[in-house]
Amino acid sequence: MSDEHTRRARTVTRADVARYAGVSTAVVSYVLNDGPKPVAPLTRERVLDAVKVLGYRPNAAARALSKGSSDMFGMLVVDSRNPFFAQLCHALGEAAAQDGRTLLIVNTDREHTTAADQIHDLTARQIGGLIIADLLTAAEQALVENLGIPVVLINQYAGAVGVPALGADFRDGARRAVEHLVGHGYRSIAFIGSASIFDDRERGWGDALTAAGLPLGARIHAPFSYEGGYQAGIELADAAERPRAAFAASDQVAVGLLAALHARGLRVPEDVAVVSFDGTDAAEYACPPLTTTAQPMAEMAREAIRLLQAGDAEPGYRAFPTALVVRRSCGCE
Amino acid sequence: MSDEHTRRARTVTRADVARYAGVSTAVVSYVLNDGPKPVAPLTRERVLDAVKVLGYRPNAAARALSKGSSDMFGMLVVDSRNPFFAQLCHALGEAAAQDGRTLLIVNTDREHTTAADQIHDLTARQIGGLIIADLLTAAEQALVENLGIPVVLINQYAGAVGVPALGADFRDGARRAVEHLVGHGYRSIAFIGSASIFDDRERGWGDALTAAGLPLGARIHAPFSYEGGYQAGIELADAAERPRAAFAASDQVAVGLLAALHARGLRVPEDVAVVSFDGTDAAEYACPPLTTTAQPMAEMAREAIRLLQAGDAEPGYRAFPTALVVRRSCGCE
Fold first, then answer.
1. Quick check: B85 and B133 in contact, CB under 8 A?
2. Which residue of A has its CA nearest to B98?
């Protein structure tokens, strides 16, 4: 912001711009919004010149303050480089746009700042609601319960006190993925993913093995990243008794796993069969294409936006059923 | 926002909360910011209760309006599902955090709204600067020149009037990638990517072939997506005279291309060698691992943030040199 602007006694309005440019305020709006009506090039130039000279800055924050709400939703996400979160954010953006809202996405960054600070930063922008795709500490949960705007937790495997939460049915989805591997006749099926205190997928893996009368196979806890999947894959490939199949708790982990198995000269599915979880595009274009448990991203996104719009949604948890997408990594043709 | 809140005559302040809870305003702040000092559980409960009863909502938008600036930067990105944009956004978030700023990311959505509207929406949040990773129309360029806050265009291959712009040296990077393929002895090298009116990578491909005295090979214009790369790969695999190698203009396109070549039973690099562009994690974990032209994402991110912080950066364009990362898809061991 220029010094000239901060020295100014009162805020420059669209009417000032119109007066200076000798046009109507509607024409100023057409120029700045790129429509809906066309504006002659010379008139446009005059308006833009006036905007520059007067230092005009359309200010919806002022409007939002007077209205007490706004047309934006905030989104706090753990790491949008993960293909699943990237697609979930996109689905939420689409769902928000259907309702005439824009989504402001902030990557959770617990190194340089606290999640509480980021939540405050976002709500202070006069957003109309907040979606959080991250596991919160107890203090953070207490904070979001008292924000004064609707909050929805997404990608959760359990409910939270005070705010609505939703997520895919992780346990059931994992169980069905592993059942599919059992159906192929594999007897030793490893788990690769995060520990069960953070996540319900390991329990689902155990459910399927127990139901089939099989012993629990190897369990490799890995961070949700390509590198996490890769390191787990090396461990699996080099194991004295190599498992015949593996369930990977995310598509990103599975892509890392495939890279490690290839690096060790193992074939998928002939030597090690793989099923993963998420249903992202990355799974479809993996080598071989991954059989994966698809999360209903568009449906969960629409529900999250609906809950924010409703404003007074009851706290509670809703699990969304998943669907197994069968491709080649499991051994199917 | 509750009806109770909108009926309220004046805004509830932190002092009101402190009075109601019988604590100091500092304690209210510690509870809501999760620190820096600890608060006894019962006191915390009293404060949160007061926040709820009074409908208190910490309002930095009001502060931002009175200060005329804020601690957030906005980011408009064409599609953060593309692994390159996801990593670029993350690098920008890191660079912003180093400076104590938070990055608000908005996906460009030209279906439901105009880019101009989204730019207005973002700037109206009293952000301190705006980064745009998208190609702008002339009207949009005129708009961003007159926003009254620092704007930087990123992922550009040429300069813009009025605002600083930067990007990887697309043409030089593509030229060196194709030179590497020429060095392997391949004589027919295809281009897969967007048309040269949007992008300089096709020109770099042509530069390398011309310099080597080779004819221009097949040129397949494809959207920047997995599916775009896949369709181009099918076209390439089924061509009467199949090229011996291909340069893919992005890692995402290359991953789609690999999937298509595998689907057609072709081996990479034995049947078709591939080099791509971006240097994302997705390239490292592809099958085979992709030789790719790495964009200096962290460096470009730091420069973009520096330009926003400086505030009065001169308009102009800066190209960042790329680095070829050699893996196996090109035919190297």
1. yes
2. A112
